[in-house]
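We emphasize that the prediction below concerns an isolated chain of 684 residues; any contacts that depend on oligomerization or on bound cofactors are therefore not represented. The input was used exactly as deposited, without trimming of termini.
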Amino acid sequence: MTTHLLQDNPLLHFTGLPKFDQVKAEHVSPAIDHLLNEARATVETLSQDTSGNVTWGNFAAKLEDMEEKIARAWSQVGHMNAVVNSPELRAAYNDNLSKLTDFYADLGQDERLYAKFRSLRASPEFDALPPTQKKIVENELRDFRLGGAELPAAKKIRFKEIQEQLSKLSAKFEENVLDNTNDYSLYVEDSDTLGGIPEDVLQTAQEAAVAEHKSGWKFTLHSPSYFPVLQYGQNRELREILYRAYATRASEFGKPEWDNTPLIKDILKLRLEAANLLGFANYAELSLATKMAESPQHVSDFLQDLAVKAKPYALKDKAELEQYAAKLGITDMQAWDVAYVSEKLREDKYAFSDLEIKQYFPEAKVLAGLFKVVESIFGIQVSPSKASLWHDTASFYDIKDHNNHLIGQFYLDLYARNNKRGGAWMDEAITRRKVGSEITTPVAFLTCNFSAPVGDKPALFTHDEVLTMFHEFGHGLHHMLTQVNDYSVSGIKGVEWDAVELPSQFMENFCWEWDVLRHMTAHVDTGAQLPRALFDKMVSAKNFQAGMQTMRQIEFSLFDIRLHSEFDPDANQSSLDLIEAVRDEVAVVRPPKWNRFPNNFTHIFAGGYAAGYYSYKWAEVLSADAYSMFEEDGVLSRETGQRYWQEILARGGSRSALESFTAFRGREPNIDALLRHSGMSLTQ
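Result of the prediction step, given as a token string:
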């Protein structure tokens, strides 16, 4: 490709915001090839430089520059692959993922760079570096060891092969789940089978059928279609059909080319081999080398201790649910009945339904309420802004400080659609760093999968979706409100994985405060604010089935940590055998034997949560304890908010999460606030 064409490549545009309206699949390979060629040249120049002492400025800073450019370009590709997936983009993504994996595997094993970092660490210059740069050097030394830099040549080659294979397998795992989800359709002709399903869901289903020139209603496995049927659908057979399709995605029950069963085994074998090469007994030990938890046993003990506290509440929840199911004529309650019976029980017990609550949470009001919270406690302003976008339903916002200085920006993509990955997440578009006298403004991606507006009505959110919105915004604040100027520990970078959920779960707490929640409600038809009586019912129901939900998270977390610490992928057993054994210990509600949860557990097989799923509960201890300080000082306390910003959000990964937490809270964390918030406190 000519220099002129490279200059026109939107992925190589680094002076402002991404040009999403211009990015095409054909831009990916030329841009990544160019950046990797540049990066390799930089590595060679730095490695061969023997002109003098190794310093931050002549060595480490140049590597930071190199990595930031690659990350900024690749974040755009990865984001678009997740939210506007197409065959062309997927092919370009996978081709270049292999190139990047290859490059970073080589980088992590480069003995020359490793030696220079060791030289910098041992030099007098190191003692004069600011704490953030010292932390980066220490992290680099650790990561070189974990990247195989100390391995003999033959083992280095094998370690690199493993990284490349794992990268491909993880991408394929996620693609199989997405393809299976996108492919499934259930067309219903008989309106009598649709009793109980909300009108907006039915309207969307009808419009989907019309778009395909079909009559009736089209249901899919995307969350806004699937979950309302399970929660409200009165027809038990319809619930079972959809549940079975959802629970067996990417398994032997579907298309063979989408079956993740062999991928699970291959991924586990490769992870174990990589860990063994580095001298670890299992992959969990390798994973925990960069986390707060000390060992797999430490994680298991934490989970089992929590299980002991939660299980009595969970058993009580289950007994209540079964008794109520019997009143509904369901004497053999199954997995596809749980959400339906739970919703009916909640309506009966607390005299409200999720559907009733949803009418009070139109999108614009929720966003305004969210922004009001962060404006109150941090003194910042959030306002709509303009940028090029990948889809006409996405949007863009600025965050400014009290002096009206731009300090952060974010993209918002809220609605579910075909060719968009399920779930909700935050990712980095641009990371704050200081270059010369200029500070780069951090930019985040905030992505959800909520129901889109139907007809002339705005999008309406359930309270759970409001919680999700606050959760992802918490991650975004961690990225955008950092005050660290060095790339590798700015924002969420360098933060231990089992602490990264602290700021996100922290934000959820505000959704249970009357003085917060009432300002983000307006009935879609009347404009009336959420009645206080209805809010009080919501609070009363807050910990409805908290025991069962906690045990479910413990089940997934124990499965994950044991899968990566005790499970032998070469033995005559499967991941299904392991999860059944875990369920024997902790499960309160058992799914059917044909449930294939491991096959679509993308968090651990395609995301970053391998041997780290426990992080959700671990960080919940931190977040509940951090929020308890706001409960003591005033929920919207500006003073406490500033302290939280300065000691936790602003610090990024520049020091350990425990140091940041202790600096904010004045002591180490304890579990009491989590148990109290979950209605499982022994003192209640």
